[in-house]
Each structure stands twice: as C-alpha cells, then as structure tokens.
Amino acid sequence: MSKAIAYEIVNHGVEHSQFFQGCGTSLTDYDLAVTGIGDNAKQAYLDAVEQCYQLGISSDSLDKLLPKRPRGINSRDRVPTYMQDDDCELWYHVSIRLKVEN
Asked: How many C-beta neighbours within 10 Å does residue 92 have?
C-alpha cells in the first residue's frame, strides 16, 4: 500500500464548475491531485481530504500528514450569498496534491 509523504494545499477560491481548469501534478514534485468543492473553503477542503482516503493510500499516513485545520482554509471564505441559487454552479474549490512512496 502506498504511503503519503508530502502534500500541498491549493486554495482556488470561488469558481464556476463548467469553467474550472482543474489541478494536476505536471511540473511539480507531486504524484496525485484531488479537488474538493463546497459552499466554503472548509467544506471544499474536507471534500478533498475524503477523496484522498479513497485513493488506496495508507490511512495512517494521511492521518499523520494532512492537517485538521490548515492555514488559510476556513468557513468564512465562501460563495457570496447573492450568487447562490438552485441554478448556480459556483462552488469553492480546494485541491490537495500528494507525493507518495510505495
């Protein structure tokens, strides 16, 4: 089973789902990237963390590596309420890049 040894958090902010360019690992030292979405930065980060646990990486290494309260990620950074409605596709996006070893 792979073990996570390094991470990087990318706070993309509010993006429209159809126009979000994504987040990858090319030209970086990282091996994997996941992106979470939510109404605010904290929800988006927690969504990305949940996706990390589904990658087949050792849960123990993720528990030790990923912060519970990362700097710059909080629930106050959110999609403005005047932009929220049922038809809106604006979401807060946060990505996590991981470096793993086998």
From this structure: 25
The string of pLDDT tens digits covering residues 66-83 is: 999 999 999 888 887 766
Report helix, strand or coil for 70.
Answer: coil
Cβ pair 13, 92 in contact under 8 A: yes
**Residue 70 structural domain:** 3-101
Q: Structural domain tally of the chain?
A: 1
25 within 8 A of 83, measured Cβ to Cβ: no
> 24 is written with which tokens?
């990858």
Q: Hey, which residues does 11 pair with through a beta bridge?
A: 94
pTM: 0.91
**pLDDT tens per residue across span 21-55:** 999 999 999 999 999 999 999 999 999 999 999 99
Hunting for tokens 């990923």 — which residue is that?
Answer: 66
- Sign for the CA dihedral angle at 72, 12, 37, 2 comes to negative
Cα separation, 46 vs 67, whole angstroms: 11
